[in-house]
Each structure stands twice: as C-alpha cells, then as structure tokens.
Task: inverse folding
C-alpha cells in the first residue's frame, strides 16, 4: 500500500495541468518524493485494542478499536474521527499528499460518508485544541458523490467502498491553495475519479483527520461505519512534531512522603497508558539513575480497568534528585517490539526552605488546553502540584456521556481524563502531584457521597450517593489518587468504593488529603423549599431548619483521622489541609449574574453542626485549608464559636471556569463587620446563608462572559491558579491568586485578583492571633 500510494502521488504530481486542470505544473522535488507517503502509526502490527497509538487522538476513544490491523469505528454515529497529533498543516506555500485505505463495515439507514477533514482548527489553532474543533474541509465520498469542501460531483463509476483508497493532494496555486481528491481501487493505482477545488490558503491550516460519517447530526443508529488503514502523510506543508505524541505512557504522577516508619521516605509513581489489548504487554518497568547508571526497580502490572501501573518504593533517598524512566515494551502482532519511555525527575525533598505549591481546580474544556496556566506552572516551578477536583466535566470533548455499564463508562471517563494529562502532563513530569476527584469526575453535577451509597433515584444534582457503577468510581479514584502516599485507612466504603483520605509529609510540611464529599449526607434529608434539593433561593428561608441531628459532612472516619493528624507533628512543623471545597457559603449568586442564592447545600457550609465540628477539630492543627470547586477564588477565615476562631481557607481560581459564581453580599444587603483595612467591597465578617461565621478577606469575582477567544473568555470568567509559599521556618503561608492570561513571573500587581498576595501566620489558623486586619 505504501508504495502504491507513493506511486500514485508521483503520478498525480507529474500529470499536473492536464489531469487536474492545475494552472501551473509543480514537479515533485527530490525531497518530496523521498519523503512521500510514509504510513503513520503501526496499526497493521498492533494487537486488537482500544487505544490507537501515540500519533492519534480518537473521537471519541470508546468508539474506536484496532481490529485485525486497521482502525475500525464501532459506532454508526456522526463525525467519528481520528485526529493526527504529530502532523499539522502549517505552510500553505508548500504541498502535501495524504492517503488512506478505507473499508465500509456496515450501513444502518444512511451512509454518512468517509474521508478526510483538512484544516481542522480551533479559535487558537493549537494541535490539542484542534482535535475537538468541528471545522475543516471535507474531502471524501458521501452517497455516491465526491465531496471536497462545498463542491460535490457524482461519481463517474461505481466505487467499492469496502475496499478503496482516498488520496488528497494539496498545493499552492497562485493566491489560493488547491486540493485534489482522488478515489481509486486498492488493487490498481488508476484513479477511478477525481475532484479538485481551490481554497483560501488559511482554510487548509490546522489538523488533519480521517472521518467516519461526516454529518455530526447522525445519531448512533443511523449512519455507516468504516475501517481505516495505511494512513500516509507527507509533504512540506506539514510541520512534523514527534513531541506531540501522546503515549503509550500518556503521563505519570508521583508523590514523595516521609512515612515516619521503617519505610522512611516512600516514593509512589503511577504510569498511565491508553487502554491496551488482551495480547499486549501489561507491565511497566521503572528505572532510576544512580551514580550515572540506570538501575531497574522492577516492573508493576497495569490495572486493566484504570490502565495505571503504580510503584511504591520504600526507603527512597529523598536527599538527591533522581532521574527516572518508566518503560513500556510494546510487543507487536508480527513479533517485533518497540520500546517507549517516559522520563522525568523525582525532586529531592524540599527541606530547609519554603515549599512552593501550585494549587489548581476545575477544568472546563472550552479553555482546553489551558496553556497560559500550564506554562505559568512551568515558569514558577512549584515543588508540588495540587489538583482539587473537576479534572473534567461530563461534556468534556463532546460525543456524549456513557453512564452504564461500567466498561464503556470507564472508557468514556478515561478519554475525558486523558485531556487532563494532555494539558498538564509536562507540569506533572518533574514534581509531585496530589490529585483528588470531585463530583464531575464521577459524572455528577453535585455529590453527597453518603459513605458510598448507591444513588437510588433523582438526578445527579439532587440526591445523595453515587450514580455511577462502583467499578467506574474506583477507576476515577485510582487514576487520580492511586499514586498518593498510603491512605490512612484504606478500608473501602459502601459498594466497595475506595477511599483515599490520608496524609503526606513533604518538605517539612504536613498535608492532610480529604474527600470532603465522600461521606457527606444527601440533601434529600432536608427540604429547601426551592423545588431544587440543593439550592435555597428564598432570602427569608430559615436555613437553621436544614441542620438536622446526625447529618454528616466529613463523616466519622475522616473526623477521627483529622483529630489524629492535628496532634501528629512528626516530621513537620506546619500543616496544610487539602479538600475539594470550602467550609463556608461564600457565593451569593450562581449560574447567571442575577442568580441570587441564599445557600447551596453542595458547599461545605452544610450541614452546619457537622461543619462546625470539622472547623473546631482542624483549628487545633492550625492548617491552611486549600480547596477549589467553586470557580470563584476566595480567601476567608472560618469561625465556629466566634468569628475568626479557626483556619483560613484559600479557594483557588478554576483553571477554566465554567458555571459562574459571585460573592456580592454588599449588593444583597448582607451585614458585615470589621471590613479589612484594604476596604475592598464584599469583605469582612459575615454570617453566611447557613448561619455560619466566615470572615472574607478577598474575592475574585468574575465578569459576565462575553469574549469569543477561549483564553480571553477563561480570563474574563475569573480563571487562573493559586500559588502558595509555605515557610516552615517563618511559619507563614504567602498566597497568590493568579489570573488566567498573565505572566505570573513579571511582577505586575494586576496579575492577581484584588486583595492578593497575602501572608498568613500559622497561628492565625488556630484562631487565637489575628494579625491580618
Ligand atoms: Fe467545578
């Protein structure tokens, strides 16, 4: 096939004007003919499996398989496609050739066609974001017609769609760019038919993809489905970027913690691969560099649900930075083998100096791949990353949500989660990562976990329990937190759903990691009077009625853990508490600018008695509480018995804020006392919608959304990230809340939300000292 395609390409170029009506004949240069038609990927010798290979992004992954050496679409739905990650059309002054062998597998009601999309690009024409763009020039066969952009012509002779080759040739033509599509049988290089058209050069720039059923409106049971093989791509119009490859080890995440046991420092690392096949190798090897030599630390098996392999290495030498390699040896169906590596650095334990923490939350995919945030992280070089949840949303990357059964639901989840790795894989390479799942990660709009109970009825935003199969929930936990330091008490909760709360000692700092919704009581235990189980909208509603005896926030197990943790000062002198959300109701408006809400049962201010119990427990350990979830950055201090008698809370900005929230208490007449000296609006001591005490020191309210460009929009919506310098010597935390579209290293005051940066002393988290006023 490879040589056939190349021959055809040469012939087509040579034919020039006479065959295609080109105005000018462009002879193929020596370089072009040399590089003509290399087949991308290795489908021919890949074992049957879901994951198509590191050169590709399949839309959606769960609808594609490698079967018998070709990439086959399992869905007859519309616009199923495979994007090429490694080749982008960037130079309209040069030519390109692309061909693919196609084979129709079945047609349901109507054939939605087959072929290429050329010039697939998002508003920012960046290769990862382009993978989800709906644009591009169609070039293929649909319903007996050749289609090229908006031009179509009836096929002159029948074409066997079960076995044919589509070839596109692009070349500059004056001010325009010409494309020629040719269809031929697989056994002969004689074109059966061709169509040519010219386009503005800009139109061809971007990604290229192969498509099964062009029409995105085709539902699953309507269209046809196709197999693709021998996809070849060549020409100087392409920029080839092998660094865009994603896999077989997609990314890795690690943690390093002083176990304060015979195990010493324990390093744990997970490698994540795409879903592999039954016949594929399922072991990952870990090597580290010591004294200039690579040394194997053995292999770990891939979990065949989560596709993670996790190593736990006790008595790690935390004093040295240690280069590592994760190695995957892929055995092919022809007996050959290829070896892929993911390299990185395990940092030395950052002791004797302040620890720099990057704190992040909530990735709504309109802002994917969040480059301004990801690049700022690389620039500011934190010692530790913390993702506090909503690494994805249910609609991430399009193509729908699969809730049941577990197996396809898992693939649906993994595909969405992989976008997290695509965006932040570089940042996670060389520094420890703590990553906890929140509601959207388990496909729920809200979550009140009820200790793992199965959700019996209602929508995912209005009832307690887990909607998804426990097996899928456990994959979420494993892919996010499988590499965390050993959990405090790993006994699973109901339905055998795993728990992940525990602690970490890193860089003279003690961290507690909570799942603050996993044991929380559901809203069906109370009546909000709003018709919506989670929202109180009536400003006169008496929310004290929502505080019933026996309702849980953190749950008994996590409360006991926190009591222990607050008394445990081994190996550290300053503490940080990680959880998903803030233990106060610091949003007055939700959804729309005027969407007033008195109280939201999904925040950590409810249930009140359990919230106050938690706030009283943690003040003993004086941790700074760092959380996310809200899409609204706030800096506040909890009060249980009195205002400001417990910890400070830093709710970090969303990486890319979706559903907007505002804290505008002044506007709705909420009373305040002791406004901070800076005099910023909406700050001071408040009683929140649930009657809880909270001192709000700073807030980063968003603007209503209007911008078109994804990054401008994310910036406008109050997105960004948190950076915290934790100084164990000075016993201080210096907090930065950075906006989205900034250079966090250029020192401009406008980089941060109003009120930041702020330095808090450890003792202020105990509630006794109030240095900040
Ligand atoms: Fe969120």
Result:
């Amino acid at each position: 096939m490879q040589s056939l395609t190349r021959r055809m390409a040469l012939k087509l170029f040579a034919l020039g004007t006479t065959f295609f009506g080109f105005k000018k004949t462009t002879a193929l240069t020596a370089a072009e003919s040399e590089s003509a038609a290399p087949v991308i990927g290795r489908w021919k010798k890949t074992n049957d499996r879901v994951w198509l290979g590191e050169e590709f992004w399949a839309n959606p992954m769960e609808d594609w398989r490698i079967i018998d050496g070709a990439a086959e679409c399992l869905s007859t739905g519309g616009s199923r496609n495979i994007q090429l990650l490694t080749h982008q059309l960037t130079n309209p002054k040069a030519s390109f050739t692309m061909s693919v062998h196609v084979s129709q597998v079945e047609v349901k009601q109507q054939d939605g066609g087959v072929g290429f999309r050329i010039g697939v690009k998002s508003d920012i024409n960046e290769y990862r974001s382009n993978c989800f763009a709906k644009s591009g020039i169609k070039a293929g066969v649909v319903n007996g017609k050749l289609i090229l952009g908006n031009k179509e012509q009836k096929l002159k002779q029948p074409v066997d769609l079960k076995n044919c080759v589509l070839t596109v040739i692009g070349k500059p033509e004056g001010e325009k760019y010409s494309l020629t599509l040719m269809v031929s049988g697989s056994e002969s290089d004689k074109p059966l038919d061709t169509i040519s058209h010219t386009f503005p050069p800009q139109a061809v720039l971007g990604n290229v993809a192969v498509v099964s059923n062009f029409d995105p409106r085709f539902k699953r049971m309507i269209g046809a489905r196709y197999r693709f093989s021998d996809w070849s791509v060549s020409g100087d119009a392409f920029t080839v970027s092998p660094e865009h490859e994603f896999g077989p080890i997609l990314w890795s995440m690690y943690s390093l913690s002083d176990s304060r046991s015979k195990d010493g420092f324990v390093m744990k690392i997970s490698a994540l691969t795409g879903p592999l096949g039954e016949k594929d190798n399922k072991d990952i090897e870990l090597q580290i560099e010591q004294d200039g030599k690579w040394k194997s630390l053995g292999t770990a098996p891939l979990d065949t649900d989560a596709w993670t392999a996790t190593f736990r290495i006790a008595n790690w030498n935390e004093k040295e930075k240690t280069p590592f390699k994760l190695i995957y040896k892929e055995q092919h169906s022809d007996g050959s083998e290829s070896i892929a590596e993911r390299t990185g650095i395990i940092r030395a334990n950052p002791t004797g100096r302040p620890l720099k923490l990057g704190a992040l939350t909530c990735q709504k995919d309109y802002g994917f791949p969040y480059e301004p945030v990801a690049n700022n992280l690389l620039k500011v070089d934190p010692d530790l990353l913390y993702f506090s949840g909503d690494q994805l949303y249910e609609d991430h990357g399009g193509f729908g949500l699969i809730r049941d059964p577990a197996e396809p639901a898992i693939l649906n989840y993994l595909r969405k989660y992989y976008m997290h790795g695509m965006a932040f894989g570089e940042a996670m390479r060389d520094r420890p990562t703590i990553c906890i799942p929140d509601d959207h990660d388990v496909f729920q709009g809200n979550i009140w976990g009820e200790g793992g109970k199965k959700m019996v009825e209602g929508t995912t935003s209005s009832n307690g329990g887990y909607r998804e199969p426990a097996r899928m929930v456990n994959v979420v936990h494993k892919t996010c937190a499988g590499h965390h330091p050993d959990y405090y008490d790993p006994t699973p909760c109901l339905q055998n759903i795993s728990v992940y709360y525990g602690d970490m000692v890193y860089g003279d700092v003690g961290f507690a990691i909570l799942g603050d919704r996993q044991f929380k009581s559901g809203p069906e235990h109370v009546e909000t009077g709003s018709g919506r189980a989670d929202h109180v909208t009536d400003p006169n509603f008496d929310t004290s009625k929502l505080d019933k005896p026996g309702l849980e926030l953190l749950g008994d197990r996590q409360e006991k853990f926190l009591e222990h943790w607050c008394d445990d000062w081994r190996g550290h002198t300053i503490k940080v508490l990680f959880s998903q959300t803030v233990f106060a109701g610091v949003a007055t408006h939700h959804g729309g600018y005027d969407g007033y809400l008195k109280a939201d049962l999904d925040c950590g201010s409810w249930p009140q008695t359990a919230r106050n119990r938690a706030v009283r427990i943690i003040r003993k350990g004086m941790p700074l509480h760092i959380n996310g979830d809200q899409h609204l950055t706030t800096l506040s201090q909890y009060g249980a018995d009195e205002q400001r008698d417990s910890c400070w809370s830093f709710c970090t900005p969303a990486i890319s804020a979706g559903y907007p929230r505002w804290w505008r208490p002044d506007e709705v007449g909420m009373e305040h006392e002791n406004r901070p000296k800076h005099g910023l609006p909406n700050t001071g001591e408040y009683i929140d919608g649930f009657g809880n005490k909270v001192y709000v020191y700073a807030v980063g309210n968003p603007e209503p959304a209007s911008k078109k460009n994804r990054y401008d929009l994310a910036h406008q919506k109050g997105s960004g990230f948190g950076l915290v310098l934790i100084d164990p010597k000075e016993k201080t935390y210096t907090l930065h809340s950075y906006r989205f579209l900034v250079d966090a290293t250029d020192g401009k005051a406008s980089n941060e939300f109003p009120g930041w940066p702020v330095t808090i002393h450890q003792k202020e988290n105990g509630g006794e000292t109030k240095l900040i006023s």
